[in-house]
Each structure stands twice: as C-alpha cells, then as structure tokens.
Amino acid sequence: MSNDPSDPFNKKLSVKKLLDDAHTAGTLSTVAKATLEVVDLGAQIQAGLGVNVDDVAASEVVLVSMMPDDSGSISAAGNTTAVRDGHNLVLDALAKSKQAGDMFVHTRYLNGHVLYPYTPLGGAVRMTQANYQADKGTPLYDQTVVLLGTVIAKSQEFAQAGVPVRTVTLLITDGGDCGSTRSSAKDVKALVHDLLAQECHVVAAMGISDGTTDFKKVFRDMGIPDRWILTPGNSAVEIRRAFQVFSQSAAAIGGAGAQLGGFAN
C-alpha cells in the first residue's frame, strides 16, 4: 500500500481507519458503519476533513458544519441571496463568540460541492454569486450521510489526538429528498442516533417552506429531534431569522455544552 498522503487510495483508507476506530470505540454502531460502507464514501468524506489535527493547539474544539441547499427550487423561489447571506451571517456571528478560536467550520452544498473543508473560522470561504449557484437537485439523504460521515470521522480524529470535541451540524433544504440513489431516511437516522447518543453533538435542520412539504416529518424520519428543527416561511426575512437562531445556538453550544434544550425561537 502506498504511504504517499497524496495517493487518493491511501486517503480513502485513512477515512476507513477513522470509521473503524470509531466503531471499535463504540461511538459508531455496526448499522451506521454499514451505511457508510455500502458505497465507498472515503474520497467524499476525505474532501471535508481539512485541518491537520496536529496543527491545532486548542484544548477542546467545536466543529460547525453546514449543508446549504443548492437545488433549483431555491433559485426559482428567489431565495438564493437569502441562503447565501444566511450562511455568511452564521460565520460572522461565530467569529464574535468567545469560543471563536476553538471553532472549526465546514460547508458542503446539498449536491456535494465542498465550499471549504474543516478550517479555523478565519479561513472559511463566504458564499458569493461566484461560488453558489442553486440549479441542481435534492439528494438530501445521500449527502446528509456524507456530511455526517465527515463529522464522525473528524470527531474521531480529534478524539484520537486527545482533544475533546463537540459538534453542531445544520442541514438546509426547501424540499424533501429527490435524487438520492444509495441512502434512505433510515440510513441517516442511524448516523444521527449514534451522534446524539454521545451527548456532545447536535444535528439540526432547516426546512424552508415550499408550501407543501411536511418538514417536521421529513426530519423526524431522519432522526432529528423536533427541538432542533427550524421551519421558516419562504421569504428572505424569515430565512435570515432562522439562520440567526442557528448561529445563536451554535455559539451557545461552543460555550455551554451541547446539551441545550433546542432552538430558542
């Protein structure tokens, strides 16, 4: 086997080892591990891992992960700017928190494009007209599995380095799943269950109203507790307010521990 870290095969094996180690440690169940192994997701997960743990001096870290919707319906509803601004608002709010130096952020769009892998807040890329086009589908289950797999792998990497880690993850969509080919709501639920069982992770979701989708049901089926579900209406003001609520909760998690009661809205 190649020891060259630039070898993509070697990278996929490194992700596999992190997931194997998480399973051995009891933080990743057999069912959830199988979900990540049905299709080899190593390269996709690796793309989000980012910062080298050995370069992190913090005594504990908070991982904040976001998955903005880049489906065509966001554009059709005129919400491209609101989603873009909402993401950037979260970065600005976190940068003002007392724990900003211990926070690492990662954004992967709903259709798989990695805007930036885990990086210190100062290295985060803002969403702009140039790097965000909402013109694709809604593979909600497939990409949530990838994102949560990345959260699990990065958490395991920090844990193995002796650094306590807390995480908060936000999924954003304006519709139910449409386009997933390998994963189901049940698969997502297995991963969410494992994360929540550790009592140092929050998985949250924002369902931007399309007038028909029951987002409470969509996210409940994915294992996300009602207290971590936001359901803004389909207007820029409501969408930005929902991002503000998330940013406040993420900052609080960084300072007060992950077991908050839910969104304060």
Description:
The protein is α/β, with parallel strands linked by helices. The protein has a single domain, classed as Rossmann fold, CATH 3.40.50. It is 44% helix and 14% strand. It has 9 helices and 6 strands, in the order αααβααββαβαβαβα. The protein has a 6-stranded mixed beta sheet with strand order 3-2-1-4-5-6, with helices on both faces. Strand 5, helix 8 and strand 6 form a beta-alpha-beta unit. Helix 1 packs across helix 3 and helix 3 packs across helix 6. The N terminus is likely disordered.
CATH fourth-tier homologous superfamily: von Willebrand factor, type A domain
Coarse structural class = alpha/beta
Task: Kindly report how far apart the N and C termini lie.
Answer: 52 Å
CATH class membership: Alpha Beta
